User: Fold these one by one.
Assistant:
Number 1:
Amino acid sequence: MLFVLFIISIILFAISKMMPGDPVLRLLEGRKLRPEQYETQYRLGREKLGLDQPVAVQYFKWMRSMVTADFGYSIQNKLPVRQMVAAPLKNTLKLNLFGLFFTFLITVPLGIVCATHKGRLGDQIIQIFTIIGYSLPVFIFGLIFISVFAVKFQIFPVSGTGVIDSKLTGFAKWWADLRYLALPLMVYVFSSLGGITRYVRAAMVEALRTDYIRTARAKGLPERIVVYSHAFRNSLIPFVTIFTGWFITIFSGSVVIERTFSYNGIGNVLITSLMQQDFAVVLTFYMFYALLTLAGNLIMDIGYCVVDPRVRLA
């Protein structure tokens, strides 16, 4: 994992250096300076950001700062990166944790019901809706929900995380915050239902076709025990894969949803930083995502061993 992370860091740093644009020019943008002052400020800006040193030296200084959790300085926000991402990370965690909870709360039972009633009318109707939901882009759900709940009925605000009045406390503050979270959360859940329901259904259908399930039924075991104790547990291998992938997104943000609703989350901050060439922020996020992905693969392997003891014997 460390070796892979090291290679990824080299690639990411090299890509950032090949990107067009000059961060120092962005830093000086809008300032009214005479030519000699501008030249002096430009030179000082390059020294401050370490851009006057060789690329190899810049890389090792950047890696040292990453290891010591000094993620650099955001030239656009005029803040250290750690301070700048604190609030967006909190908002992203809130959105994704609630989203994952409600998504799996709905899709797992729904997928199991579809698998146990495979081919019946209810299963066919659900499959039609899951195909539609799986095929539609996320921003289409966003536009539909904005049109219905924000424009037509005006129940929720259209966008933003809200400027909560500092005088609000207790339930009033919680309710105001919840109103701004509602639409992104609803779009998150509805856009995820189709794909995961079909995934759970396919895994359960495959498990219910196996010989040990027929044997369990032949022994007279109750259907509830057959489905939930035998079939579902043995269908968890593919389920662990998708759950781990979704768990990683808790920290990485939902870029399309956050951008659609101007939600102050990690995904929205990343896109804005890319557009503004704020490379300290971009590199910090990408290294964080790389570390999360590698850790997720490790968690996935451990999860395989937990749900299927046969993996430990391989």
Number 2:
Amino acid sequence: MGRNTVTGIDRIRRRRAWANGFTLIELLVVVSLIVLLASVGMTQYRTSVTRAQEAVLKENLFRMRDVIDQYYADKQQHPQTLEDLVTGGYLRAIPKDPFTGSVDTWQIIQAEPDPANPAADLGIYDVKSGSQKTALDGSKYSDW
């Protein structure tokens, strides 16, 4: 009877020892799943940040191009600098390029010479981003 009692106590101790902790395999599986989910989450986060920056860039380009057209319609000449749009009251401030983080990196496209007035200053016809990065759709931001 003493021998069976010791064996029964040993079984209880083994069960308790097993129930008190996790095996190394279980811990590795859990950690691997956490790392996998975190990497998926970070990828989604970075993509959403880039999409937001692209939306800001599109809006800034649309607004600046619209303002350049308004300036030309009002004054019958293109602005010489982007600062002319601010001093003329067409913009409150020159917007930042969201990918370069600067107002000084906008690429300016000069207007074609006017055949009726070849001596006139050319001025700014269009504006593009100064970033050389590639968009999510594969195009360059500087081509937008």
Number 3:
Amino acid sequence: MNLGKVMLGFAATVAAGAVLGVLFAPAKGSITRKRIARRGTDYSDDVKEKFNSYIDTISEEYDSIKDGVMDLVDKRKEKVVMASGKNHSK
């Protein structure tokens, strides 16, 4: 699933929840607005944390793949050097 779509869906859900919270809130408007702002900050922090975790996972995968490719390149270089050394000794 596309990360942009997930984040957009999450933002839409938060916005809808905030609107419903205001409409059905039993508290005064000022108190309700503070609660919504606090929850928005909490949700924002959660999204940032999950996004950073996602980026860390991708970075680890990238590093792993890069290391594997570099190992393959080194092995191929060794084979080429060994093969060229055998050809020169003839």
